[in-house]
Amino acid sequence: MKTKYVVVEDYNPEWKNEFERIKNELLTVLAEKINSIEHVGSTSIEGLAAKPIIDIDIVIDKNFEEVKKALESIGYIYEGDLGISGREAFDYKNKPHLMVHHLYVCNKDNKELYRHITFRNYLRQHKEDRDRYGSIKKEMALKYPEDIDLYIKGKESVILDIYNKCGLCK
């Protein structure tokens, strides 16, 4: 299901629609149980080049077990926090009708959720930084197509600069 190669594509307006399709399926079991479903990550930022994977944060209010059971009822598999405290990850099987996506559940006061939303909102409003970030993503994907760790490390200085500008650096 998940790609081995780092592929970064130009922004695709269909990503919004794909997010909505996933969100609508999630809401069939999550309506009334959650605060919101947020489209985060690069595919949520109009004009930004991205890996064609939809990143989704489900925002909850301390009712993780209830949400986990609901997600499991529609084929999601709980994977733990994958090393990021308070951000609970889910995988899935048998969802060929949906675009590849990463699904996380976070309490509304979670630091990772705050980081995702702040970064997303900043880039939506600052074209120069959005374009600079898109350029480094494309450059690193071409340079390290088979090494996600080096791809991530190569983007780090630009990300940290943007974090500083939007108040995410400590």
Automatic annotation (TrEMBL):
InterPro entries with a match to the protein in the record: GrpB/CoaE, NT_sf
Entries under SUPFAM superfamilies matching the protein: Nucleotidyltransferase
Top-level lineage group: Bacteria
A Pfam cross-reference name: GrpB
Cleavable signal peptide: none
Official protein name in the record: GrpB family protein
Organism of this sequence: Tissierella pigra
